[in-house]
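Thought: the user wants the 3D structure for the chain below. I'll pass the sequence to the structure tool as-is, report back what it returns, then summarize two notable features.
Action: structure_tool
Action Input:
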Amino acid sequence: MLDGFSSYNQILVQHDDQEKKTFFTPWETFVYAKIPLALMNVGVTFHRAMDISFVDEKDKFIVSYLDDITIFLKSDFDHL
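Observation:
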């Protein structure tokens, strides 16, 4: 079982869309370069990225759900 700790923050925001995720403070302006957790559909976006990454292994010996990845193999040698 693998836990994708901070997994959502690993997906980059397209450069053209970064200005849409800008926020202002009295001291500075901030732009998200990676997807923040508070956005809608972040979990779905990450899950789709996992499905694309593991397209050959998916549902054979890897199951991903949200930010968790479960790997089922018969032996430790296969796992390594």
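Final Answer: Structure generated. The chain is about 20% helix and 20% strand. The helical segments are 42-53, 76-79.
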